[in-house]
């Protein structure tokens, strides 16, 4: 296949040379410098099999992963916040031959037996000729492991190329774009979309190291054109906007504001749009599938919707028995299944889990539940395992109830789950972080609020108050951690 990074090609036509490629704080690399540093890394690890990458939010992580891809070596990004037990599992499962790390990084004991290669961002080497095939593994990314130990999704080179090119089509993404982000680099969102995406286009990325509204405003006011974030980041933006005219100016001047990794509450959509005149667009993907759908840059940004299937992606909604959901009516709930070149190859060392994940005709069972509007827009309503509530003969998605609850002035955060009910099958439980802990909204007020916006059968029957909702690194609510006792 053609190179993943034409801009790093030694051919003069493909080399932007002194154009900026990466910036992390005060440190930056041009395309020529990145080609030299990644080429040097590739030379050091050629033929190494799989390599682990200590994926801190630093320049070295980007150089390490690009170097591995240039060398045709599969990279295994490691979360620096992982505990020893999880790290030991990932290392045992993926069996990397060495670990790439920043020179100043202190590595935990679990990595002690691995050969360490420090990444030198000032090293000089040459970009090797690309001899890789479409199906060769590029990354092994470990899933969050909510139902057991994390599984290693083997992502082929074709999936990187097709997803990033499909997003370029949907977002009109070019080499003139400058992306600002502050996402972790051990997940698909921050690493694949947020680092490899700009580099495939020949554009540049400015990584904040750690997200802040001040940093995002600074970069957008200084020429950045795109912002990638997760809902917790956009929530902080929405909270900050009323008292920060510089932030409002920065966002209003951006070409594209993109949210992903979890649903962005409609309330935050509306607050940002009201303050800036710009709407955040959402897309939908998974570790195993990379990106499946997005609102297009030239399409209608619709709060609560993740847009339409990307070029090359086949998407269908199915009933529990596997038959297609017949109606595109915005109400009929089904599981999303997808097929296309964006999919992973397998779960490493898990042929049983791999086989179970696919249908006989090659569609991947995402476990995500959605509805489709008549014009094809997809709206995620939650996960099959935790967000689909069967109550009184209805199939109800938790997501739309959460959005309705967040519109109540007494609610700061909300999560919705189901619990067994002898009459209804399951009853709807609202987990609420009150805006004022001293005066939390009553169940009756919340139930009336939801019933007035959605339908009576979607109102919560139980309310439980919390100081904060449990969330993971990407801001997703960890519903399995909510205690129904």
TrEMBL record:
Q: Where is the composition biased (Low complexity)?
A: 1-19
Q: What superkingdom does the record give?
A: Bacteria
Write out the transmembrane intervals.
none
- Region annotated Disordered sits at 1-20
Provide any one GO MF term from the record: medium-chain fatty acid-CoA ligase activity
Chain ranges of the AMP-binding enzyme C-terminal domain: 400-476
Question: Where in the numbering of this chain does the AMP-dependent synthetase/ligase domain appear?
Answer: 15-348
GO BP, one annotated term:
fatty acid metabolic process
Q: Which SUPFAM superfamilies match?
A: Acetyl-CoA synthetase-like
> Member of which family?
Belongs to the ATP-dependent AMP-binding enzyme family.
Q: What is this protein called?
A: Acyl-CoA synthetase
